[in-house]
Design goal:
The complex is a heterotrimer of chains A (473), B (294) and C (277). By secondary structure, chain A is of the alpha/beta class. Chain A has helices at 2-13, 39-56, 72-85, 99-104, 112-116, 126-131, 154-159, 171-183, 185-192, 210-223, 241-256, 271-279, 300-303, 319-322, 360-370, 373-382, 393-396, 399-404, 407-416, 429-444, 449-464, and strands spanning 26-31, 61-66, 91-95, 133-134, 137-138, 140-141, 150-153, 197-201, 229-230, 235-239, 290-295, 323-326, 328-329, 342-343, 349-353, 469-471. Chain A folds into two domains: 24-141 and 347-419, 3-Layer(aba) Sandwich (D-Maltodextrin-Binding Protein, domain 2), CATH 3.40.190.10; 150-343, D-Maltodextrin-Binding Protein, domain 2 (3-Layer(aba) Sandwich). Chain A is globular and about 70 Å long. With 294 residues, chain B is mainly α. Chain B has one domain: MetI-like (MetI-like fold), CATH 1.10.3720.10. Chain C has a single domain (59-240, 247-276), classed as MetI-like fold (Orthogonal Bundle). Chain C contains 13 helices and no strands. In chain C, α5 (98-108) crosses α7 (133-157). Classes of the chains: A alpha/beta (473), B mainly alpha (294), C mainly alpha (277). Chains in contact: A-B, A-C, B-C. Chains B and C meet through α1, α4, α5, α6 and α7 of B and α1, α2, α4, α5 and α6 of C.
Chain lengths: 473, 294, 277
């Protein structure tokens, strides 16, 4: 029926020649986040190399790059609109926490039969497999995972008279350091040649998107010994002392003691980008402040040493002189999840195949190509900081790969990975994550933690259903 | 002349199809959508189900929806009724060629009307761009304040509703001004002269002679801009995106977010049905008013 | 008395200056930055250049201009064509459903696009017109049809039927008179419809926002929107404010010209009843 409408409209109003070009080659389209460190590598190496590889195998293939808007939220919106309209790329990258919902929507190709026939699949570490598995089926392949350290500025710490190197062991240590810096912020700012010094920041607010949830809220919640989803009962946690402690900590740094940016900072523009610029400001942006402590993802370490990147810390002094990393402490020693003293969380993206693709086999060939040990190793050499926590254990054990490891990589792999945890791989998670972001924004707007928790419990119940929530002590 | 239409009926076809499919179509299609659970992801994306009145049920108990209804009302009252109509009337009266209520000042008056008109013809996104450049944390307003040693303020966060109201007044006043001017010009000169002969002061002349004659244009225009302003989306969306929290989340923005941030197309459509009802109701009133003339 | 008058003038100027300041202030940065070399977010009066304008017509901004032009022209063409053809029967015939359809046309004019944006998207998806420029133009053109028919109908009705009758006597068909007599005389009316539809397509944001997801299809409105998001975000993206402001000024010109010609007509046409009692 719609075809008839279309024909009538187009004929009645304007005739458009549809140039159906005859294609000899198989054309596959490909979408990847443009802001990723290894995006240029896809353009300059993987795609041409794969085309040559397929040409040699007698199946000429052309990979077309589809550029989607950046960053996460616009990328997600464009992805879904194209998927829903049936116009999305054959191969695309999806943040792993969207895989359950997208798989249920029928957008993703079930890769289980493909990986079962692929001998290299056995090299995937269990945690990496989990991230791309839903309801017992495999929906994508991932190259690596990530972790979240806490960064601090050595120069600011020294000017404030704080010890360097520094490893806080409780939230109070963080607050204490922040108070010390705050007391001297004017003189430190003057010494650095920046407009102000911000002691500490935890990502917050709706505009922060998933960064608020993963690099702010979750890092605190885990340290208070809490989770969003209680695996034991199979229910979402509506209330717990850990949730309340987390909200109270936000309240403390943003409202009570004002140890951070103004709360409004998180509600305008692109705050997540901005906060990183504050972290890397050593005076090259005199009109902007510098930030002393921030929990964020592990790749920032490499951005700050990459002259191409806006987060680059120019020399002198250079990254190594001013920036340092440590583990995020639990509320008190042993108070973290599983009784840990320190906590972190992992996420990552998966490369998936559009269920509507006409060439699933060739698309999977591309996935295999990009996820092969050799290509991942080459990428590790070519792009500093890429694939540091590989999804494949045979890569981790490779001597060449091991030689590339910097102290930072070793810190992430040996100190943080054993502590890590993942987001619940459930369809409802993205919606719960939205609620978490909104809860932090309510704190920023001055609401009391107890009231925000009540609100969260009610909204959670409305979102996932009363039978799927639980209240923990 | 009153012949049968015959084969000429075909002339109606292109316009009618276009209108029926793309204007009436979405409205009817939208009503159909509200009885389903169509979504862009999750199981409902694969197999949308008929869910009866579930969306309306949810709407009635959705505090965020009622909040948006209230905020839309504030936005319309502030920007359309008080702002555009008020400022438009003021400008029209002060610069009208024929009504000497105030002493004439040519240059500033002309400049004010020209700018007001220019603002009205500016495309929506450009207005957003301009207002963001003005109210942003690094924007022009904070730059001016800095000259006086005053600290920067997150205007669009702290005074979100006021910001979008001011921007919308800025955008829409030109229309009301032109309309009121046309209405003023159409008042017969003699009426006014009679008042002058009676020794009325300019203010009295305006209050007791001009204003009563303008009552109907004012009313019709307020109705019209109310309808339009309920539908305003792009400008506030660009400026505040509904934030902080939900403090500037108008009905249109809530509908958009439900659809394209939470990807629940069906429920988002149910939200916008509210706007549809309000505007259709106002439109019917408008139609009745204009109809009475004929 | 003279003092009072002087005070009145001063007060009057003051009121106008306040209004002028209000209308001018959001434009200052746009106007200064468009003519500056590498402007920042700060208003500064130095480094003036005209170099930003030629650069608008290169790279992605050139594509925005092209897409905007395509949407606007297609919209205008479809709206003018559709309205003109349909207006003739409405002006010259009585037929069943005429009053009802006119009523529905006017009523539909008041449906804001934002109230039907989700169903519009869903419908366009169903028709496979989503993420196409022609789909955007169809949606916008449809929204111009009611006003178009209404205005053109009035125009045709004002053309004396005798002109047509004379031609019919000479053996011309109705089709010929529509083409040869009515169309030329409708010129000004159609020009108004065309200009207004052009402006509607040129300035549209909401339709493009919901319908277009490919950056290669972005018109100026979407480009500016994207830039306004990126303007406050750094990372790898940096916005060329000079070119953005230059394209903003260029963006402003067509609606200015169009409304210069049509605004009086528009105001009177829309609220004829209200004004004339």
């Amino acid at each position: 029926m719609y075809k008839w409408f279309k024909v009538a409209l187009v004929l009645g109003i304007m005739v458009f020649g549809l140039g159906a070009l005859a294609q000899e080659k198989v054309v596959l389209s490909f979408a990847y986040p443009t802001w990723f460190t290894d995006y240029p590598r896809f353009l300059n190496w993987y795609i041409p190399a794969f085309e040559r590889y397929m040409e040699a195998r007698g199946t000429p293939v052309e990979i077309e790059v589809m550029e989607l808007p950046a960053p996460d939220d616009p990328y997600r919106e464009a992805t879904l609109l194209r998927l829903a309209a049936g116009t999305h790329a054959d191969i695309f990258a999806d943040d792993t926490f969207y895989i359950p919902a997208d798989a249920l929507a029928g957008y993703l190709l079930d890769l289980t039969p493909y990986v079962e026939k692929w001998p290299e699949w056995k090299f995937w570490v269990p945690a990496a497999k989990d991230a791309i598995t839903f309801q017992g089926k495999v929906w994508g392949l991932n190259r690596d995972t990530d972790v979240r350290p806490m960064y601090y500025r050595k120069d600011i710490f020294e000017l404030a008279g704080l010890p360097v190197p520094w490893q806080p062991t409780s939230w109070d240590d963080i607050l204490e350091a922040a108070r010390t810096i705050k007391a001297k912020r004017a003189e430190i700012a003057k010494a650095l040649g920046v407009s102000d010094v911000i002691p500490v920041a935890f990502k917050a607010g709706i505009l922060g998107g998933e960064a608020t949830t993963m690099q702010g809220f979750y890092m605190l919640l885990l340290g208070a010994g809490g989770r969003l989803y209680d695996a034991a009962s199979g229910k979402w946690v509506a209330k717990s002392s850990a949730l309340l402690d987390t909200l109270k900590f936000y309240h403390k740094i943003y409202i009570e003691e004002k140890l951070s940016v103004e709360p409004e900072f998180w509600m305008a523009g692109a705050p997540v980008d901005k906060i990183h610029l504050y972290l890397s400001n050593v005076g090259q942006r005199p009109n902007e402040p510098a930030l002393a402590m921030l929990v964020t993802w592990d790749g920032v370490w490499y951005d700050t040493a990459n002259p191409e990147h806006e987060r680059y810390i120019p020399e002198p002094p250079g990254r190594d002189a001013v920036l340092a990393y440590c583990k995020m402490p639990a509320k008190e020693p042993g108070a973290g999840i599983r009784g840990q003293d320190f906590v972190t969380i992992s996420g990552g993206w998966g490369m998936v195949i559009n269920a509507a693709t006409e060439h699933p086999d060739i698309a999977f060939e591309f996935l295999k190509f990009v996820h092969s040990k050799g290509e991942m190793l080459a990428s590790r050499i070519d792009v500093p900081g890429s694939i540091r926590l590989p999804a494949r254990w045979d890569l981790t054990e490779d001597p060449v790969y091991q030689k590339l490891a910097t102290p930072y990589d070793i810190f992430c792999a040996t100190e943080l990975v054993p502590l890590t945890t993942v987001r619940p791989g459930l369809t409802e998670y993205p919606k719960v994550s939205d609620l978490v972001q909104e809860a932090t924004e309510k704190i920023l707007l001055g609401e009391k933690p107890e009231a925000v928790l009540e609100w969260y419990a009610a909204e959670l119940e409305a979102t996932v259903g009363a039978e799927n929530v639980i209240e923990l002590p | 002349m009153r012949k049968r239409l015959g084969s000429l009926a075909i002339l109606l076809v292109p316009a009618f199809v276009l209108w029926a499919v793309f204007m009436l179509g979405p409205a009817l299609w939208g009503i159909r959508l509200t009885f389903t659970n169509e979504a862009l992801t999750g199981p409902a994306a694969k197999n949308p189900q008929f869910v009866g009145l579930a969306n309306y049920h949810r709407l009635m108990r959705d505090p965020r929806f009622w909040g948006s209804v209230y905020r839309s009302f504030i936005f319309v009252s502030g920007s359309a009724i008080v702002g555009q109509a008020g400022l438009g009337l003021l400008l029209a009266v002060l610069t009208s060629e024929r009504r000497r209520i105030w002493p004439k000042v040519k240059i500033t008056g002309r400049l004010a009307t020209a700018l007001c008109w220019l603002a009205w013809v500016t495309p929506e996104t450009l207005i957003g761009w301009c207002w963001i450049s003005f109210l942003d944390y690094n924007g022009v307003l904070n730059q001016i304040l800095k000259l006086f040693g005053l600290g920067p303020v997150y205007w669009m966060v702290r005074y979100g509703m006021l910001s979008i109201i001011l921007a919308n007044i800025w955008w829409g006043t030109g229309w009301s001004m032109m309309l009121f001017k046309a209405a003023l010009e159409s008042i017969p000169r003699e009426v006014e002269e009679a008042a002058e002969v009676d020794g009325a002061s300019p203010w009295q002349k305006f209050r007791y002679v001009v204003l009563p004659l303008l009552r109907r244009p004012i009313f019709v225009n307020v109705l019209l801009i109310t309808i339009w302003t309920y539908g305003v989306f792009g400008l506030p969306f660009m400026m505040t995106g509904g934030g902080p929290g939900h403090r500037t989340e108008l009905m249109t923005i809530y509908a958009y977010k439900t659809g394209f941030k939470y990807f629940e197309i069906a429920y988002g459509t149910t939200v916008s049905i509210g706007i549809l009802f309000i505007t259709l109701f106002l439109a019917l009133v408008y139609h009745r008013l204009l109809g009475r003339r004929a | 008395m003279r003092l009072r008058r002087w005070l009145g003038v001063a007060l009057n100027h003051l009121v106008f200056l306040a209004i002028v300041a209000y209308f001018l202030s959001p434009l200052t940065w746009l106007f200064t930055s468009a003519f500056r070399e590498n402007p920042s977010v700060w208003v500064e009066f130095k480094d003036f250049t005209l170099g930003n304008f030629p650069r608008v017509f290169t790279g992605e901004t050139a594509r925005w201009v092209r897409n905007s032009l395509f949407i606007a022209l297609t919209t205008a063409l479809m709206a003018v064509g559709g309205s003109f053809l349909a207006a003739y029967p409405f002006a010259r015939f009585e037929f069943r459903g005429k009053t009802l359809s006119l009523f529905l046309l006017v009523l539909s004019m008041t449906i804001p696009l934002s109230a039907v944006m989700l169903p519009t998207f869903s419908l366009a998806r169903f028709l496979h017109l989503h993420n196409t420029l022609i789909g955007v133009a169809l949606v916008i053109a449809a929204r111009q049809i009611p006003m178009g028919i209404w205005v053109t109908k009035e125009f045709i009705a004002s053309i004396p039927i005798e002109l047509e009758e004379a031609a019919w006597v000479d053996g011309a068909s109705r089709w010929t008179t529509i083409w040869r007599v009515i169309l030329p005389l409708c010129g000004p009316g159609l020009a108004v419809i065309g200009l207004m539809s052009f402006v509607a397509g040129w300035g549209d944001f909401t339709t493009c926002l919901i319908m277009l997801s490919s950056e290669e299809l972005y018109p100026i409105s979407m480009g500016l929107y994207k830039a306004s998001i990126e303007a406050t975000s750094w990372g790898y993206v940096s916005v060329d404010y000079g070119v953005m402001c230059a394209i903003g000024l260029i963006y402003l010109i067509p609606p200015m010209l169009a409304f210069l010609f049509t605004h009086r007509y528009l105001v009177k046409g829309m609220v004829l009843g209200a004004v004339k009692q």
